[in-house]
Amino acid sequence: MPHRVPTSTGPHSTVHERGVIPREPTRALAALRVRDLQQLALPRLEHIWSTSPCAPLPGGTWQGTYLCELPMSAPKRFLARAMFKWRAFGLDLDANKWWFREPRRHVAAFEPVPGPSRWRDADVVQLHYEHTGPHLLKHQLYDELKPLNDHCILAIGGSNHDALRGTWFFFALSPFVVS
C-alpha cells in the first residue's frame, strides 16, 4: 500500500500530524500564481496539494518551474535537477506532450487521467505514459498535476513507484508566454 499523507476530514479541513488545518479558501486559490508557490516551504506545498480541490485541467502550453525537492537518492536528485531545475521545460496540454528548451520540442506523450493521487490523499490529474517510447521509459514515467486555477498548476514529478521511491520534486506550471 502506498504511503499517502494527510487524510481528509471533510470539505473544510484536513487531519495533519499537527492537528486539524483549514482548507485553502477558494478566493485564495483563485489568486495563486507560480511566483507565490516559489515562496513556500515544503510543508505549505504539501498542505495546498492535500487540501485544495482539483480544478479542471486547462489546455494550452505551460512553462514549468522547479519548486522543491522531496527525499530521494543522490542519483535521482542529480537527474531531476539536470532535467528540470537547470533547463526550460513544460507541458503542451493540447497535444498532451512534455517539452524541453522550447515548446515545439516535444519529448514524451502522456494521457491525463483525473483520479486519486497514488502518492498523497488528494484528487489529481495523473499523467500516464503508456503511449511513449521506448518501452523501458514508458514504464518508468509517472507524474501528477493539481490544477489550482486558470493560471497555476501545482505538480509532483517522479517515477512510476510508490510515494517513498516515486516522488522526486514539486514543480509548478504557468501559461507559456512568448517573449
Strand content bin:
35-45%
Distance between the termini: 45 Å
| Overall spatial form | globular
| Count of discrete alpha- or pi-helical segments spanning 4 or more residues | 6
Spans with pLDDT under 50 lasting ≥5 residues?
A: 1-22
Radius of gyration: 16 Å
Fraction of residues in H or I helices: 10-25%
The tally of strands reads 12
Which strand order does the major sheet show? 7-6-5-4-12-11-10-9-8
Element-level helix/strand string: EEEHHHEHEEEEEHEEHE
Task: Indicate the mean pLDDT.
Answer: 78
**What characterizes the major β-sheet?**
9 strands, antiparallel
Structural class category: alpha+beta
Key structural traits:
single chain; alpha+beta; nine-stranded antiparallel β-sheet; three-stranded antiparallel β-sheet; 6 helices; 12 strands; globular; disordered N terminus
Topology:
Layout: E1 7-10, E2 13-16, E3 19-22, H1 26-31, H2 34-37, H3 42-51, E4 61-69, H4 74-85, E5 89-92, E6 97-100, E7 106-109, E8 111-116, E9 123-128, H5 135-138, E10 141-149, E11 152-159, H6 163-166, E12 167-175
Antiparallel strand pairs: 1-2, 2-3, 4-5, 4-12, 5-6, 6-7, 8-9, 9-10, 10-11, 11-12
